[in-house]
Amino acid sequence: MRRLVFDDGKSRKFWEGSTDGATFVVRFGKLGTSGQERRKDFASAAAAEKELAARAAEKLGDGYVEDGGAATAPASAPYPFLFYGHAPGDFAEGANAGHFWEIRFVRAGNDEELRAVATAWADALAGSPVATVDWHFAGPWALARCGEDAPSGDDHHRRFFAAVEKAMRAVHAVLPIAEVVFGNGRGAGVGPWDAWSHAEQAWPSPYPEFEDYTRFYGVDHPDYREAFGDASLGTGAKRPAFDEALHAAFARHARAEATAEAAKQKKRKGGLVFAPIDQSEVDRLAALDRDAMAPLNARLEALGASRARPRLLGPSGRVVVWIETGKLQQKLAYADPVDTALRTPELPVVTGWIEAKLSPDGARIAVIQTHNLVVTVSDTDGANELVAFRTAEKRSLKDAAWVSPMRLVVVAQGQLHIVDLSGGAPVVVSSTPAKSPARVYSCRAGTLLVVARYDERSDVWAVRGDELAKLGEAKGEISGAVEDAAAIYVSGAPWRRIDGLPPA
């Protein structure tokens, strides 16, 4: 059992943690009382022990000490390194650029040490709401950029910052840390670790120059010291050894999670399974994209194309679609793997995020304009443009996919709308409610739809005439769907195969 106490002269409380087999047991309250008890079951005794260690580390970071230890006043708290913004009172979102942490190690790490740092970081964050974007290094400094997985619960931010602390402690055990700064903190942190850090060193140290980053920490604090990256201390850059180890560790965790989820799903009656596949199979699927692109790269390069993405569109094969947005015009180039001559119709200029998809027979182009809340369809030469779908509800139009040469499924207003164009004027023949739909991918010549959702799950729907029938759902975020003669696969981290589908 772990018993920790906190006593700063104003607040006197205790925290006790223990395990009972696969159950984590915690008791807490004011010193001198019996407190309250909470119990939480886990899959194994090892998982319960891991939870105990994590929660005890979190309490130690908040100023608790082992019962019988030293006083816990913030100025003398035994913290392993300086941490500015450990408990941010307020922070800026950074215009969706992510959350940034500056990390100053005691010394610069070599490749082997950075591999160990990457593995420790990834292992500590497994199952947490923290999503790592990238790391850059300059001498003993590093800049870690992270995002947030889909928020859930009122304590999301507490769990987010607790997970970061856990990861920093894990990294410190591999390569000692001298100082951490949460770059997005508007004011100085409000916790005892922050108070101790400022007492030890009044303000964070100067830091190297990192691209597109400026320290924001403490900007609303009366003692704020304006700070910008100092190129004389170095310029941030990625370290391949770190990135390779980080990606390998995340892939390992993703495979383990997918395998565990697949095992759970197999026990359910009906339903689908997103089954993990071998790396050799992932490489084969990635090669399909490369092979489809190969005959077209030179032509796309001649056009100055910066974005080219192969699409799987049923019997017409893969089609490369590219959009160029400029002040005066917008071009779309497309071709299939057999006929590699590029066609480049000019499209009306639109604003915001857009996507273009070619119909299965190659005769029409659908342009999804999420900003303007409209889906337009025209011939491949840009003629005969018509509005296939429009909505007035802000941020409600998400995506669309062809299911036949004259039919689209549009994702909008939390529904899947089948839009028929065969009569000239578009007609919505049916609208089916769907939970949290985001992106839609057409498979098996338009007879199946894979729908990515915002709640970390995905659905598969069958297209049956004028109606849609949900075949099942599976846990896991996806970023696309790819098929071959054998199966349908979903891309993501990791790639998976959809098992449990009806025969083609």
Model description:
This protein has 504 residues and is an alpha+beta fold. 21% of the residues lie in helices and 37% in strands. It has helices spanning 45-61, 111-125, 156-174, 192-200, 240-266, 279-293, 297-302, and strands spanning 2-7, 12-20, 23-30, 36-41, 65-66, 82-84, 99-105, 130-138, 141-148, 177-182, 208-209, 230-235, 273-276, 309-312, 318-325, 330-335, 346-347, 354-358, 364-369, 374-379, 386-390, 397-404, 407-412, 415-420, 427-433, 437-443, 448-453, 457-464, 467-475, 480-483, 488-491, 496-499. The strands form 8 sheets. The chain has a 5-stranded antiparallel beta sheet with strand order 4-3-2-1-5, with helices on one face. A 5-stranded mixed beta sheet has the order 6-10-7-9-8. A 4-stranded antiparallel beta sheet has the order 13-32-31-30. A hairpin with a 6-residue loop joins strand 20 (374-379) and strand 21. Helix 2 (111-125) runs antiparallel to helix 3 (156-174). It is globular. The termini are far apart. Mean pLDDT is 80; it is low at 69-77 and 310-316.
